[in-house]
Amino acid sequence: xxxxxxxEEQVEELVSQTVADMAFEGFICTDEDKERIRRIGxxxxxxxxxxxxxIAAYSRVKS
Length: 63
Hints:
The chain contains three helices and no strands. By secondary structure, it is mostly helical. Helix 1 (8-24) crosses helix 2 (31-41).
């Protein structure tokens, strides 16, 4: 199930807030991370789907 869509303004606010929160915790937010957040906010994907993509990508690298 896809998430509800947000306006582009809301999506960018979500990205900005996430980047700030991650920086506060000492992490960086890559451009790929920002695009993942945008896809989730736009309802194009879910957080679970994005995590699965990350796991699959790293699984291929390790093999």
